[in-house]
Amino acid sequence: MNFSEPFKLSGLLGRFSPDGRCLASCVQYRLVVRDAGTLQILQLYTCLDHIQYIEWSSDSLFILCAMYKRGIVQVWSLEQPDWHCKIDEGSAGLVASCWSPDGRHILNTTEFHLRITVWSLCTKSVSYIKYPKACQQGLAFTKDGRYMAVAERRDCKDFVSIFVCSDWQLLRHFDTETQDLFGIEWAPNGCVLAVWDTCLEYKILLYSLDGRLLSTYRAYEWSLGIKSIAWSPSSQFLAIGSYDEKVRILNHVTWKKITEFEHPATVANAKTIVYKEVEKSPSVETERLSFPPTRALANSLFSTQSKYDISQVPVSLQYIKPVADRANPKMGIGMLAFSSDNCYLATKNDNIPNAVWIWDIQKLKLSVVLEQLCAVQFFQWDPRQPRLAVCTGNSKVYLWSPAGCVSVQVPVEGDFQIVCLSWHSSGDSMALLSKENFCVCYLERDEV
């Protein structure tokens, strides 16, 4: 495993291009595009203000930079560095911006969610979508890029409109049986749209492409409901993470629950492997000690390394009781993700912030628990194989695969707290992001 030197970064804005050739990063108002393999700078662009969001077009030829404070989006071309485009929403303001699947249209959401403006880079034409709902996830494209669903709010009622992305014509418009719609997400095969309600009401609705209600699922009433959802890559399973610290799995045939995964503070099943991260002080040979010590030696002396031990069950995990009188309590299933081969589901229970739970989907049982020393900030699956990367806000990256578990210290000087990471599409490398820097980790084929 090799690491690049650290590079400056702001706003956690570091993204690999979809084709895997480039890596874009932002430093305040500058956009830096590097070769993903050599990290040589290919292009350097200067924007009008601090960049708050970046996104690659699907064909990796363009990159948009959104400056929400000024209501401006700037678009840059990698093929023609002299060409650029500026979209100014003016007094309407700007709260969100994204590409359409064809990489030639930009969708801007104005302040107060008054409308979504669809800008064409080819014809310079403009279309408007009225009444978009201000919710966490109100815009969703099918994976094949043919259709777009938009959550809307009109006359105190929730609606969903489905558009054809080729010409932005309205295909279907229907009302949803939600009190206060919170999010929408297509199944990867594009046949089913999941619509879920605010956390005050446990309700998830499944609609077909033509707007028919296929099924409604409610696990319980009169308590905080859905916190997160995830589709399996095959579209066969829908995982629903709830505030009651459970994950429920629905199947794609009857849309009924096939199982539920609990996240107790004590892991008691003898068949579950619990990897516990333990710190170990580095051993230094006294003959090598010099005064003053070299920089490399000083770094190895004062950086604590860690490794995984396999704990004997039962294992008690650190459980944090949520503060009842605060908004957005730290409780329930805040993160969940399926592996690319559909075999595993990784989850995090916010009540037990230092643990990652890995479930075997074929056997529908808990396979592994990773018990970390610090709270888990983020995890993501390798896009090519069942390999999970985890970061916990320190200078280490953790990798799990069915073969085992490893903790790797990033050899960077100074304070490098990894709070986010992003896999390359090949699975051979990943970008490790801290608040002020990023570096790239290169993995050998046979590692882990």
Report on this structure.
This protein is mainly beta. The strands form 10 sheets. Strands 29-28-34-33-32-31 form a 6-stranded mixed beta sheet, with no helix packed on it. Strands 1, 2, 39, 40 and 41 form a 5-stranded antiparallel beta sheet that branches. It has a 4-stranded antiparallel beta sheet with strand order 3-4-5-6, with no helix packed on it. The protein is globular, with a radius of gyration of 23 Å. The model has no long low-confidence stretch (mean pLDDT 93). It has a domain at 133-218: Thrombin, subunit H (Beta Barrel). 2% of the residues lie in helices and 48% in strands.
What is the structure about, briefly put?
The protein is mainly β. It has 1 helix and 41 strands.
Q: How does the helix and strand content classify structurally?
A: mainly beta
Rg, alpha carbons: 23 Å
Q: What is the second-level CATH architecture of the domain at 133-218?
A: Beta Barrel
> Into which percentage range does the β-strand content fall?
over 45%
Spatial shape? globular
Number of strands: 41
Mean pLDDT over the full residue set:
93
- Number of helix segments? 1
Main sheet summary: 6 strands, mixed
- What is the percent of helical residues? under 10%
Task: Give the CATH level 1 class of the domain at 133-218.
Answer: Mainly Beta
Instruction: Report, as a whole number of angstroms, the end-to-end distance.
Output: 10 Å
Taking pLDDT < 50 over at least 5 consecutive residues as the criterion, the unreliable ranges are: none
CATH fold label of the domain at 133-218: Thrombin, subunit H
